Amino acid sequence: xxxxxxxxxxxxxxxxxxxxxxxxxxxxxxxxxxxxxxxxxxxxxxxxxxxxxxxxxxxxxxxxxxxxxxxxxxxxxxxxxxxxxxxxxxxxxxxxxxxxxxxxxxxxxxxxxxxxxxxxxxxxxxxxxxxxxxxxxxxxxxxxxxxxxxxxxxxxxxxxxxxxxxxxxxxxxxxxxxxxxxxxxxxxxxxxxxxxxxxxxxxxxxxxxxxxxxxxxxxxxxxxxxxxxxxxxxxxxxxxxxxxxxxxxxxxxxxxxxxxxx
Length: 262
Ligand code: PEP
Description:
about 260 residues, binds phosphoenolpyruvate
């Protein structure tokens, strides 16, 4: 059975003070939730927050010895160098991060990160032993013109090109995030999300083999809320959720996490 992965992407919200406030509330509620903690202890679930760079140190310190995972929202592919404004995977690891989001649609579309950039970032994260949450997803115009599957195939295959199957299964979590559903309040129906996740799993099987495909964790993201989490997670190929807006408040993120308990 694949583990569930419940992830909060804070985007450019929660500076250090707000992070400290979030953590003191969320971590105490998380550790007091016996059902969540026993799911985590039994390897059935993981819970993560992806904080802005400037808040990562606070997040790592405030999580204490709780099992909450702290990750970053981006990284550069080089270890160090003349890349003003960038942060490397090696630096994230030094800070205590274990995970990183790669290829969020806001990075692809606002900051024009290319598939080649994302491939280099994924490779670098693997070298640093960071787990990547690799995002793929179509624009509304892609969906309307019937090219959703072509877009997903291109993004997935370009990102994972020539990778070792074991690395894909163990170090990459794939998040399907239809761009039209991010921050818009429009959720893809559970069936639509399942259809694309099944397509991703099939692509992984065709490329890396059944074993890799069956082990790889797939997430859905796009206007996930406490109310729709259970129906999304009931889908066969969806193992978790990547949550933006609803992860910013401890109570709503905890409610989403509770809805994921098995
Ligand atoms: C996201 O930031 O990845 C996301 C899915 O945002 P939201 O949940 O707010 O749609």
